[in-house]
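My main concern about presentation is that the manuscript never shows what a single data entry looks like. For the editor and my fellow referees, an illustration may be useful. For illustration, here is how one protein appears when written out as sequence plus C-alpha cells:

***
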Amino acid sequence: MNDVCAHTITTYRDDVIGYALNMHPFFGDKVEVLELLFEIISKEGILISEK
C-alpha cells in the first residue's frame, strides 16, 4: 500500500509531531475495518475514485 500512496510524517527538530496514514481508494475493500468508512465517503461525494 505504501508504494501506491505513501504515508506522511511531520517532524519538528527530532520529534514526530504529525502522522497521516494515506490510502488509495483501491484498497478500500481490502481492510475490513475501513470498508464502511470508504462506503460513506464515497456515498457523500468526498471520495473521488479514479478508475
About this structure: The two ends are 17 Å apart (CA to CA). The mean pLDDT is 85. The CA atoms of residues 28 and 36 lie 9 Å apart.
